[in-house]
Amino acid sequence: MLLNCAKSKGTAPFSIEDKRLTAVAATHTEPFLLDADHTLPAQRLAQLHKALADTLRLQILRLLRNESFGVLELCRLVDIRQSALSHHLKVLAKAELVATRREGNSIFYRRAFITDDDALADLKRAAFDAVDTLEIPSEQAMQLEQLQQERSELSLSFFEKNADRFSENQGLIVEREHYDSSLIDVVEGLGLPADASVLEIGPGEGRLLVELARRFAAVTAVDNSKDMLDLSRAAIAADGLSNVEFLLGETANARETLSGAADLVVFDMVLHHIATPAATFKDVAALLKEDGLLLVIELCSHDQDWVRSSCGDLWLGFDESELDQWAVMSGLRFEQGSNLALRNGFQIQMRVFKKHAN
Length: 358
Known about the structure:
The chain has 358 residues and is of the alpha/beta class. The chain has 15 helices and 12 strands.
């Protein structure tokens, strides 16, 4: 059963200051899908309107556009007490506009994923689109940049201090032998020609980098740690290869010189060390050619908080839905994936995404 609410009269459905958001419901001409019990989700509709009827909550949604943040991080960004922020987050959660994930002892918030079977999906997407046009205040933008820089420096500092123990630290979670053959099978199964251009982000000691250089004519290694880049450079030299370029920096730096140049970009157990994974997906989309591929090998979401101090992890793995959502937001689509369970309880996911042709 369908109910068209486009011609309803009375007060505007959004009572908020920004007129662009007010227009979201006013111009909505598609019928609302009813819930499974054939009733209009009136309570959910009211909760959605309430959540959007506050400037601070709009600011929170704007900040959550590309990344997830902990409660204390959000307090710092919007400059309010934790108790007040908790109230606003509760309102947003009731409206199903934000979702949570536990990172050890901390709770991180992100925008909720909108599914096609949600009766309010069109309104939520339109609301998010309108929120994304809002400008982040300059002071807030400075705090955001500083926070992201602090995350990056935390990870970089760990690898600068522990470069000589990289294999030992990684082995606490997963040993390469447990998934190496599966990874090579995935790479070869992509069907890329030998003259393909390939980028590996965060090559570590260069084990996968060597395999990529053996198979493809032009390979680039990108890492923000000089010590780790030196390790991968030594691995390439030891194998007698000369077709690898080394770039000290992050994906944002690679975009400056390699935009639209890559047939394949690979993240091998790296994303959980990156301060801004969602923004990194956008960088990758810019680096890829049309129909180019992104291969992500990553930990599934877990609750082993000790990896932060022992392995330098910023994130406790990721849900498949998170990776897929970031990909969609960046113009990439999911192609294939598989999971590999390890004896120590961790799980590895391998996911391939493809850049949409314009």
